[in-house]
Amino acid sequence: MLRGTYLALILGISGGFASSFVWIEPFRPYLIAFTVFVFGYLWYKKLKPAKQAACCETQEKQKFIQSKTFLSLITILVAIIMTLPYYSHIFIPKTEKQVQIIIIEKSNIQTAEFKIEGMTCTACQEHIKSEVDKVNGIISSDASYKKGNALVQFDSTKTTVQVIKKAINSTGFMVTEIQNK
Predict the structure, then answer these.
(1) Up-side HSE of residue 46: CA atoms within 13 Å toward CB?
(2) Is the pTM of this model over 0.85?
(3) I need a surface site. Which of 93, 123, 150, 176 has the fewest CB within 10 A?
(4) Taking the chain, what is the end-to-end CA distance rounded to the nearest angstrom?
(5) Distance (Å, rounded) from C-alpha 139 to C-alpha 97?
(6) Does residue 162 lie within any of the structural domains?
């Protein structure tokens, strides 16, 4: 049983962390299913009624790492890690743009759509939006993981499409296509 607990600890935590990496995202459902299977098996083994002990055998006191409490803690930790992409956007700080009253000629305003590979959750889109908003000359930006893109409106006298692309790529995601609107 001790080996099973270590297996749950190693596979569960590593499976949870690995599932948050962008490059392994296509395998995430399989890793989650495998982790659920392993924990289901461990809980089955832990909750299964114990066999009757022989008359002369004494039961040893279980170590903490073999207890239901430890298995419960590890199960909760792994569940938190596996669901991280669904709530991680709350940990990304909101950047408040300072409003500057500057008159921008309409001819200098450009809009570009950046097709982005690898976004899988709201945290991904918020991370990209946060980095793009740091670029000088950005008027507005919006990223969508569902559409796999970012729409950016910017002042062409202050920044370029290549600078914005570099900011997006610095997040770990890859711009695959740029369309000027």
Answers:
(1) 21
(2) no
(3) 93
(4) 61
(5) 10
(6) yes
DSSP state of 116: E
48 or 59, which is more confident: 48
What is the pLDDT of the chain when averaged over all its residues?
A: 80
Residue 101 has pLDDT above 60, yes or no: no
3-class DSSP state for residue 138? strand
* Integer Cα distance of 41 and 35 in angstroms: 10
pLDDT of 67: 85
Q: What is the C-alpha separation between 89 and 126, in angstroms, rounded?
A: 7
Q: 3 vs 22, 42, 74, 145, CA distance in Å?
A: 30, 10, 14, 40
Pairwise pLDDT comparison (117 vs 15), residue with the higher score: 117
Residues 143 and 130: beta-carbon distance below 8 Å: no
SS (H, E, C) 35-69: HHHHHHHHHHHHHCCCCCCCCCCCCCCCCHHHCHH
Question: Which residues form the domain of 19?
Answer: 2-47+64-82
Other CB atoms closer than 10 Å to residue 116's CB: what's the count?
25
Q: Indicate whether 10 and 78 sit together in one domain.
A: yes
User: Over the stretch 110-123, which tens digit does the pLDDT of each residue have?
Assistant: 999 999 988 888 88
* 162 vs 176: CA distance, rounded Å: 13
